[in-house]
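Q: C-alpha cells for this one, please.
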Amino acid sequence: MPAGVLAFWVCMLVAAAHFPSEYDWRYMTTSQLIYPERNPAGHLWASAALIACAAGGLTWLSALPRTARLQGLPLLAAGYGCMILSSLLPERWLSIRDGHEALAIAGFVGVCAGLVLLSVHHLASRSQRHAPRAWLIALAGLAFSPIALAGITQIYLTWWRPDLPWVGLMWKAMGVSPALSFALWEWITCAVLSAYMTAIGLAVGEHVCRTSNC
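A: Here is the predicted structure, written as C-alpha cells:
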C-alpha cells in the first residue's frame, strides 16, 4: 500500500509537469490531468497514478492472511475498484454522463470509510479494549473533513455564488479564495488518505504478520 501511494504522487507530478499550460493544484482538479484532450502528453501518467495506487492497495489486501478478520476491508477494496474504473474515463466507453466524477467520489468515500474502520479496529486490537471515543471521532473527522469541506463549498457556490464558473485558473485571475475551490479540497483529501494508507499499510501489515506468525 505505501508503494502504491508513492507511485501515485510520482506519476501525478509527472502528469502535471506535462500539462500544456500552468497547473495550479489549488484551482485545477485531478480530472484536468486525466482527460487526454486537456493533458495530451501526460494523461496516461495521471491514469497510471490512480491504477498504481489502487493496485498497491488491492495487492496489500490480498496478501493479508485469511485469519485476519479486519473491519473495513470490503469498503476499501470497493474504493480501490472505483479508482481504477474512474481512471478509464467510463463515460467514453459506457456513455455514462459524469461517470469519471461519480466513480472518483465513490472511490474517495470507499477508501476513506474503509481506512477509518480499519484504523479503529487496529487501535482496538492493539489496546485489547475498545478504543476511546475521542480517538474514533478524531480518526473519522480527520479522514472525512476534506470531503465534507468540498461538499460544503459546492453548496455555498450553488446557492450564493452561482455567477462563478467551474473552478479553474480563471478563479486565480479573479482573486477568488482557493478555500472555495473543489480542487484544493480534492488534493488535500488525496494527501490525507495517502497518509492514512501509508500508516495503516505499515502498522496493520506488521501487526497482522506478527500475530499470524507469517
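A few notes: Residues 112 and 143 are 6 Å apart (CA to CA). The chain has a mean pLDDT of 85.
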